[in-house]
Design a protein that fits this description.
Elements: H1 8-29, E1 31-37, E2 53-60, E3 63-70, E4 82-88, E5 95-99, E6 108-117, E7 122-130, E8 137-143, E9 151-157, E10 166-173, E11 179-185, E12 191-196, E13 203-207, E14 215-223, E15 226-233, E16 245-249, E17 257-261, E18 268-270, E19 284-289, E20 292-293, E21 295-314, E22 338-345, E23 348-351, E24 354-362, E25 365-385, E26 393-403, E27 406-407, E28 412-417, E29 430-439, E30 442-451, E31 464-467, E32 487-493
Antiparallel strand pairs: 1-32, 2-3, 3-4, 4-5, 6-7, 7-8, 8-9, 10-11, 11-12, 12-13, 14-15, 15-16, 16-17, 18-28, 19-20, 19-26, 21-25, 21-26, 21-28, 22-23, 22-25, 24-25, 26-27, 29-30, 30-31
């Protein structure tokens, strides 16, 4: 066996390497791979289903805290509602930390949100409660620890819109430590953002004005200098779910503009338009209404370049020629409709210039090839236009989009859209919160919603929550529509 003789210089180098390894080893251990599963309920350390709804999950230090309303076996409109806290190091294993308010005045409680104040070194709980339904007001409480218990400071915080009742809300702390509350009223469910005092215990009464009406369950966050407010139409424990309307602004308090709804299918999903069958009676119908024809929207899995499209039509929408012996034409003329092509950009549709069109007519079918100015988009809309087309309906067999000779249709989802076609939620959940998640690739944002009616035992307190895969943002700052994901994984930092 060989004996190693470390000389002083060699020993010094060896010691330096060991020191470097020891210094960097903690950095490697900070990241961990986690798997999020939306197909089953999350449980605490005792195997009990986590009963915490319509609140938030937020990271303080190296720990995640889940704040929510406990409904137990009630219908959610009783004075038995109370606030709970759970903690976790990995978003998978949860520990029940207890009730947030030990002695709460009798009433019906919803929407607990906790934030930390760097100046006062206090954890601040805001909550929505009703001494009597629907006499809504806000309460605020503080604690020295994130899991509480919290001591009530004021159970009737006056807001700019207190006179018309206070409902759902969300809290947001900006990079400079300024706190904001986005909330809706009971009357008309008006959504607005209001600035908090420096201690987060009350409002400055500085309100940015009405952003939207008939909305609830708002949540606010910031990314790349842009402020986001997500809310949607009222959803009273609905099992079909709410949408998630996205409003953006350059200012946290006001100037919000609606961009899109990331939790709504644009219309009726269509498989026929990409099934490869270009002729015959397997077609989709575009109907004409007061505002024009229905349209076809294509949502790509990511932004794609498009420069051509091909539309295959069934011409069986022409009327019969029965008994009109004076008509010299055997069949009514095949009339080619005109189409407009638009792409979704910066929260609105933009027309794409058409460069060339070729039409081929054959037995019972018509093929329209359109060359457009090359455009990059993740959403494309094709709509018939013009008054010269005499028929109330169009029958479409197939639509293909191309870049050069390469078909893009397999990477897109097709929908028939129109004013009379309902837009159903993608995720059948009511929005609760958008959580910031620190990952090896930077900060990501997770959409959280309560899946009301999902519990197999029909107990409201056992209803699941849906945690989205990280939201995807387009280069213009808009958010791509969500997709249902059973499971997803991410490498998170603690």
């Amino acid at each position: 066996m060989r004996n190693f003789d470390f000389k002083p210089k060699t020993m010094k180098i060896f010691t330096s390497y060991i020191t470097l390894i020891c210094l960097f080893l903690p950095l490697f251990s900070l990241a961990q791979q986690v798997m999020i599963d939306n197909t089953k309920p999350r449980k605490d350390e005792k195997g009990q289903i986590v009963d915490a709804h319509d609140g938030r999950i937020i990271q303080f230090g190296d720990t995640f805290y889940w704040y929510g309303t406990s409904y137990g076996t009630t219908n959610g409109f009783t004075t038995q509602n109370h606030y709970r806290c759970y903690s976790s190091k990995d978003l998978i294993n949860w520990k029940y930390e207890g009730k947030l308010l030990k002695k709460q005045p009798e009433g019906v409680y919803y929407r607990p949100h906790v934030i930390y104040n760097e100046k006062t070194k206090e954890y601040v709980l805001w909550y929505n409660w009703y001494p009597k339904l629907w006499d809504g007001q806000f309460g605020v409480a503080t604690s020295d620890t994130p899991m509480g218990p919290f001591k009530i400071v004021n159970d009737n915080v006056k807001m700019h819109n207190s006179s018309i009742g206070l409902g759902d809300f969300g809290l947001f702390v900006d990079d400079d430590g300024t706190g904001y509350i986005s909330y809706n009223t009971i009357q008309n469910h008006q959504v607005s953002v209001e600035k908090l005092q420096d201690d987060y215990l009350s409002s400055t009464m500085e309100n940015g004005g009405v952003i939207a009406k008939h909305m609830e369950a708002g949540t606010q966050f910031k990314k790349d200098g842009k402020y986001y407010l997500l809310t949607d139409y009222t959803c009273c424990f609905c099992n079909y779910g709410s949408g998630a309307r996205v409003y953006t602004s350059e200012h946290p308090l006001k100037g919000y503009t609606y961009t899109s709804n990331i939790n709504r299918y644009p219309g009726k999903p269509s498989i026929l338009l990409k099934d490869g069958i270009k002729r015959g009676t397997l077609y989709e119908t575009l109907s004409k209404g007061d505002k024009g024809y229905d349209a076809v929207e294509i949502l790509f899995d990511k932004p794609r370049e498009v420069d051509k499209l091909m539309i295959s039509m069934f011409t069986g929408n022409r009327p019969e020629n029965c008994g009109n012996v004076d008509n010299p034409r055997v069949h009514p003329e095949i009339i080619t409709p005109k189409f407009e092509v638009s792409i979704w950009k910066n929260g609105q549709w933009h027309l794409v210039p058409l460069k060339n069109k070729q039409v081929e007519k054959s037995a019972l079918s018509e093929t329209i090839r359109i060359e457009i100015e090359k455009a990059t988009a993740d959403r494309v809309k094709i709509v018939p236009v013009g008054s010269a087309y005499p028929y109330e309906q169009l029958y479409l067999n197939e639509i293909e989009l191309f870049l050069g000779h390469n078909s893009l249709s397999d990477s897109g989802s097709f929908y028939i859209t129109g004013t009379k076609i309902p837009q159903k939620p993608i995720i059948p959940a009511q929005q609760s919160y958008v959580m910031k998640l620190n990952t090896n690739e930077g900060t990501k944002f997770i959409w959280i919603g309560d899946l009301w009616g999902s519990a197999s035992d029909n107990v409201k307190g056992h209803d699941y929550q849906y945690w989205s895969a990280p939201l995807e943002f387009n280069p213009d700052g808009t958010i791509r529509p969500m997709q249902w994901t059973d499971q997803w994984s991410e490498e998170i930092k603690n």
